[in-house]
Design brief:
The protein is α/β, with parallel strands linked by helices. It contains seven helices and six strands, in the order βααβαβαβαβαβα. It has a single domain, classed as Isochorismatase-like (Rossmann fold). Helix content is 35%, strand content 18%. The chain has a six-stranded parallel sheet, with helices on both faces. Helix 2 runs parallel beside helix 7 and helix 5 runs parallel beside helix 6. The two termini are 15 Å apart.
Length: 202
């Protein structure tokens, strides 16, 4: 089922140094001069704490590719930029989780290689193991991994809520445009609303 009583899981995408830390190489998630970095990452930390307090599982989706980019299909300007910057290389500082937004003991980490958290990963199997039917999606970038993950999640039958202020894109205009594009597919809520409406019962 996917109604109000459905089992919930947090799907947390790309809270990694590469696109969240000021010294990260990728700026399409949080702009270099972003004034919202601390707020958005702080909201994600509050969301994680609320989920842990009521036993809602958090699945951490990380992006990492072979250091020599073997097997990466270079078919978009964004992926060409990764390679030019030397970004997202497995084993590098960039793919580590940003401080305070990594997994705690027992939480599952899923690695993937494109935009959607489901692509080339075990995310669907992990969520099935939890019996999850309602996903709270958040992460960086709103317009890439979050939107791609939401669209695929909806297509395969999940109910989805986006924790809007725990997400970020390189510019606020793109962030708001991505949220608006997802509005017909998902509930768009603030972290405070998710904590009050969705996580009270797990």
């Amino acid at each position: 089922m996917s109604g109000p009583g459905a089992r919930i899981a947090i799907v947390a995408n790309h809270y990694q140094n590469e696109n969240c830390h000021p010294d990260g190489k990728v700026k399409v998630g949080i702009g270099a001069d972003s004034t919202t970095r601390a707020e958005r990452l702080g909201n994600a930390r509050r969301l994680f704490a609320g989920a842990r307090a009521v036993g809602v599982p958090i699945v951490h989706v990380r992006l990492a590719v072979d250091p020599d980019y073997r097997g990466v299909v270079v078919n978009t300007p964004l992926i060409r930029e990764w390679i030019e910057l030397g970004a997202w290389q497995e084993g590098s500082w960039g793919v580590a989780f940003v401080d305070g937004l990594g997994p705690e003991d027992g939480e599952i980490v899923v690695t993937h290689t494109r935009n959607s958290g489901f692509h080339n990963s075990t995310l669907a199997d992990v969520l099935a193991g939890f019996g999850a039917r309602h996903l709270i999606c958040c992460g960086v970038s709103t317009a890439y991994t979050v939107e791609s993950t939401v669209r695929q999640a909806v297509d395969i039958g999940f109910r989805v809520t986006v924790a809007s202020d725990a997400c970020s894109t390189g510019t606020e205009r793109r962030h708001l445009a991505a949220l608006e594009a997802m509005r017909p597919l998902a509930d768009i809520k603030t972290v405070d609303e998710v904590l009050a409406d969705d996580l009270v019962s797990g």
